[in-house]
Amino acid sequence: MTLTLGVDLDGVVFDLMTPLLAQYNKDYDDDMTREDITNFRFEKDRFKCGRLAYNYLYDPRIQFASPFFEGAEKVLKAFMLHDDIDVIFATATSRAVMPAKLAKIESAFPSTYYPYGFYLGRDKTKVDCDVFIEDAAHNVLSMLNKNKQVIMPDRPWNREALPNIHHHESWFDEENRMLLVIRSLGWEHIRKLVLELV
Ligand SMILES: [Mg+2]
């Protein structure tokens, strides 16, 4: 039996917010940090430019500049090479920045060696997977409403939204809840696989 993992990209695999805020701070002479993003609805966060902050999401340079979260590449590679695990990357990203995003994924995980699926669309509940890893609270809620198993990485913009769902701190932490959820699904060998990478 195969465990299929749905994996969101921005905020889960890629740290998009760091280069986004660096560019915004430069453009608007501000000093915002990730901790200031408490909402993920940019018009409600404290951007001086309000809704215009969304435009940064359509800038390929910011996509290219987003680093991988620590451990993400290593753990995902191990998952992809494991016979019992399928990975499906899923993103609602605009098509304007898809080439940048795909180029980053392909350079880290050349598909000749690392098999993965890909879903591009707004409704990630359509991704057919056993567990989904997602950072945006509104998406997590939609998945929970459809009885999907979800793991939510701890980010400043989802801390208050859903205190009772499975959080994980990083891709590597031994006690992290991502691994606890995977174990609760009966995939202890996959938990061990990740722990071997620590
Ligand atoms: Mg995300």
Bound molecules: magnesium ion
Give me the CATH superfamily of the largest domain: HAD superfamily/HAD-like
Beta-strand percent range: 5-15%
**End-to-end distance, in Å?**
25 Å
Which bin fits the share of residues in helices? 25-40%
Question: How many domain units?
Answer: 2
Radius of gyration computed on alpha carbons: 17 Å
Average residue-wise pLDDT: 88
Tell me which oligomeric state these chains represent: single chain
Largest sheet: 6 strands, parallel
Description:
With 198 residues, this protein is an alpha/beta fold. It folds into 2 domains: 143 residues, HAD superfamily/HAD-like (Rossmann fold, 3-Layer(aba) Sandwich), CATH 3.40.50.1000; 49 residues, no CATH class. The protein is 33% helix and 14% strand. A 6-stranded parallel β-sheet has the order 3-2-1-4-5-6, with helices on both faces. β4, α5 and β5 form a beta-alpha-beta unit. α3 crosses α7 and α6 packs antiparallel against α7. The longest helix is centred in the N-terminal third of the chain and has 12 residues. The site of magnesium ion has 6 residues, from loops.
